[in-house]
Design brief:
It is elongated, with a radius of gyration of 35 Å. The protein contains 3 helices and 26 strands. The longest helix has 47 residues, at 22-68. With 433 residues, the protein is of the alpha/beta class. It has 2 domains: 24-148, no CATH class; 153-427, no CATH class.
Length: 433
């Protein structure tokens, strides 16, 4: 009987051992713990990666908009600006696994090849932490944005009805890829590019229609636009009693001139080197015009040349003649003058009271630079010349009743700090992609 009892006891212990699952739980926990920890790690790191992705995309968006708005500063300013904005948001190119690439034009997407757009790509390489068991390679987090330039306008033709109020024809070459050109005319052919003319702009905008050959190269063209107001529309020429003392150029080879009333015109000979002191120069069409002969050198900062007349007769506006080999570097004042509010930034002003549909021809070569706004609201402006002197200041605006481009023209509107008023142009910088 004792033997049977011992066997029964042994069998009972075996059943109890078989029924005991505590060891299985420990074994299962030992196998599943790394999986659970890895899942938790992936969840934690996944959340962190998501928010880094959001931060990178936000930085790319802001960098692209800032970069494209820096177009006018210099040929490389957009790259510097894009990387600087990304760095200010914590993504410094070449540090901590970050790469910032700024492309103009974009290399991919729907705007690839469009020179009016800038693409910013920010990429971050980050090694995994607890999730390395399941993701042994590095994480690559990136963001991409493309912004399209909106303005400013450099050229504005004000006539509300003239056909071809803004035009370029023949063999003219107009190169202003960072500027908009605007015509307020409602005519069917408001803005006209014809013949063999080559016109490269950021945007062509007209209140009427645009007629153009393939020579018009732009990123945007807009017809039937709302007319753009003249930002200098309130300017007026004061009475002759406010023009100051009568001045003359004289015959010296080196001359410094003062502002005032040039009752016999402003005529600079070929051999003269002339410095214009700051102020307003009233050039009286009743006695002469503005002439700068070949070989002359004329410089001046803070200068406004006013083309007006002391005569009550209409059509007595001064003529303007600048010979091609003259060196001209005249920049506008950065504060308002006697012409009134918003006159800061005006380098040439043609008095609309001395005649309508008068001509104003601005010519010259790479040594000819009028820094600021050329404003002739009642004149037909013919512009021939580069408008850039190589000084690093590339600010020229042209506002007239009608505008015709002659010869080769190169204009930029980097007018920061120059005092000029903005020509709205009807286009805004946008985040495109």
């Amino acid at each position: 009987m004792k033997a049977v009892s011992k066997v029964s006891a042994l069998l009972g212990q075996g059943r109890a051992l078989a029924a005991d699952q505590s060891g299985n739980t420990l074994i299962l926990f030992a196998f599943s713990a790394p999986i659970a920890l890895g899942a938790a790690a992936l969840g934690t790191e996944g959340g962190e990666l998501y928010w880094k992705k959001v931060a990178i995309q936000g930085a790319a968006d802001q960098a692209a908009v800032s970069a494209v708005n820096s177009f006018n500063s210099s040929s490389t300013a957009y790259t510097i600006e894009g990387k600087a904005v990304a760095a200010s948001m914590g993504f410094v190119d070449g540090e901590n696994g970050v790469t910032v690439t700024v492309n103009n034009p974009p290399t991919t997407g729907s705007l690839a090849g469009k020179t009016g757009s800038v693409e910013v790509i920010i990429s971050l390489t980050q090694a995994p932490f607890l999730s390395r068991l399941f993701h042994p390679g590095d994480f690559i987090i990136d963001g991409r944005a493309v912004a399209t330039y909106g303005g400013p306008a450099c050229v504005l033709a004000l006539d509300p009805a003239a056909s071809s109020a803004l035009e370029a024809g023949g063999n003219t070459v107009v190169d202003m890829p960072k500027c908009n050109i605007v015509s307020d005319s409602s005519a069917t052919t408001s803005l006209d590019v014809y013949g063999s003319a080559s016109v490269t702009v950021n945007a062509a905008i007209a209140s009427g229609g645009i007629s153009a050959t393939s020579g018009l190269v732009d990123n945007t063209n807009i017809s039937d636009a709302t007319p753009t107001p003249n930002p200098y529309g309130a300017l007026t020429v004061p009475a002759t009693s406010a023009w100051g003392s009568k001045q003359s150029v004289g015959n010296g080879s080196t001359v410094t001139l003062s502002p005032g009333w040039y009752n016999n015109g402003l005529d600079i000979n070929a051999s003269q080197h002339v410095t214009l002191n700051p102020g307003v120069y009233y050039i009286d069409g009743a006695g002469g015009g503005l002439t700068i002969n070949a070989g002359a050198v004329v410089t001046g900062a803070g200068v406004t040349l006013v083309l007006t007349s002391s005569s009550a007769k209409k059509n007595s506006v001064p003529t303007v003649s600048i010979n091609g080999s003259a060196t001209v570097n005249i920049t506008a004042p950065t504060t308002n003058s006697a012409l009134g509010a918003d006159s800061a930034g005006v380098v040439i002003f043609q008095d609309p009271k001395v005649g309508s549909k008068q001509s104003l021809n601005i010519n010259g070569n790479s040594n000819t630079y009028f820094g600021g706004a050329i404003v002739a609201p009642a004149a037909a402006i013919g512009f021939e010349g580069t408008g850039v002197s190589g000084t690093g200041q590339n600010c020229t605006q042209i506002i007239g009743d009608t505008i015709t481009f002659l010869g080769n023209s190169n204009i930029s509107s980097d007018c920061v700090g120059m005092g000029t008023a903005a020509i709205s142009g009807g286009v805004q910088t946008v985040l495109s992609e």
